[in-house]
Amino acid sequence: MKRGLLFFAFIGFLLSAHAATVDTVWVESKAMKQSFKCVVIVPTNTANQSKRFPVTYLLHGYSGWYSNWIIRMPELMQEADHYQMMIVCPEGKNSWYIDSPINDSMRWETYIAKEVPAFIDSHYPTIATRNARAITGLSMGGHGGLYLGIKQAAIFGACGSMSGGVDIGFRKTSWELQQLLGDSATYPNHWKDYSAHYLVENYKADSSAMIIDCGTEDFFYGINEKLHQKLLDLKIPHDYITRPGKHDWNYWRNAVRFQLLFFDRYFSKIRN
User: Fold this and answer.
1) Which of 24, 86, 245, 263 is most exposed by smallest CB count within 10 Å?
2) Contacts made by residues 75-82, CB under 8 angstroms, sequence distance 24+
3) What's residue 47's pLDDT?
4) Domain boundaries, the chain
């Protein structure tokens, strides 16, 4: 058997060795007139077949795709079982999870914050309220987690970021950002209006609970520190975690466990 087939056979074994259900579904975007794949992890529920679950939306990074998380961390099934929460990993392309102000075909905020949750709520046993939804991700997805969590606080009650590119002006010529926002000299407001770093200035008292995590050896560490200080200055409540680590899966496999714990504690209010 070839090495690639062995790898996927191994992943299949890992998936089958856990009790949680892992679905791959197509979710239509009417806004973009396309459908995209999405991984849905549903925890085991043997005691109460009518039970409904809170949902954590887990976003991938730049150059990633919808199945990154479950391939790199199949233990997410155990986490879903342990916390009795669904975990949903949608496709986000290299979108930075925004609705592009210069390209109407790029409507990723609408897709992730509205169309995907609507599909999940209509096809799975969710608790369909903001207090039972959280959103987070890694790198580009960390920006998406905070950006959507704050801007769409009526949909997500909690949000997070792992090694997030929380200020999209950090490297304006990288990561296809100009294709989404336009040239920064021509459209300077776009680079503020669509950045999580500046969006926090609009944070309201009933906005999403927030957790931010970044390794001290990460190239995004500096902008995460600046965001943390800004949140302190604005007296915005948040959990902030740093530890030795780089911008890699070793860090994210560890960090996501803290994020899920944070969200589980947030979700506990709907269980009591």
Assistant:
1) 24
2) 75/253, 76/41, 76/256, 77/15, 77/18, 77/19, 77/20, 77/22, 77/41, 78/18, 78/20, 79/256, 79/257, 79/260, 80/20, 80/41, 80/42, 80/43, 81/18, 81/19, 81/20, 81/43, 81/44
3) 60
4) 24-271
Q: Give me 266's structure tokens.
A: 């947030």
217: helix, coil or strand? coil
For the ranges 2-6, 57-61, 115-119, 241-245, the lowest mean pLDDT is seen at 2-6
- CATH architecture classification, 24-271: 3-Layer(aba) Sandwich (3.40)
Is 147 within 8 Å of 156 (Cβ atoms)?
Answer: no
Q: Which of 40-54, 77-91, 113-127 has the lowest average pLDDT? A: 40-54
Let me know: does 58 contact 239? Beta carbons within 8 Å. no
Structure tokens at 249: 């899966």
**Model confidence band, residue 174 (pLDDT cutoffs 50, 70, 90):** confident
Taken as a whole, the chain contains a residue count of 272
pLDDT band (50, 70, 90) for residue 272: low
> Does pLDDT of 5 surpass 50?
no
pLDDT of 35: 98
> Do residues 93 and 59 make contact, with C-beta atoms less than 8 angstroms apart?
no
Task: Please answer whether residues 26 and 38 qualify as being in contact, where contact means their C-beta atoms are separated by less than 8 angstroms.
Answer: yes
Exposed, middle or buried by CB within 10 Å (0-12, 13-18, 19+), for 105? exposed
SS3 37: strand
245 Cβ contact list (under 8 Å, min separation 6): 215, 216, 217, 218, 251, 254, 255
HSE-up (13 A, CA, CB side) for residue 198: 12
Report the alpha-carbon distance of residue 180 to residue 98 in Å, rounded.
8
Give the per-residue pLDDT at 172: 67
> Average pLDDT for residues 135-160, to the nearest whole number?
97
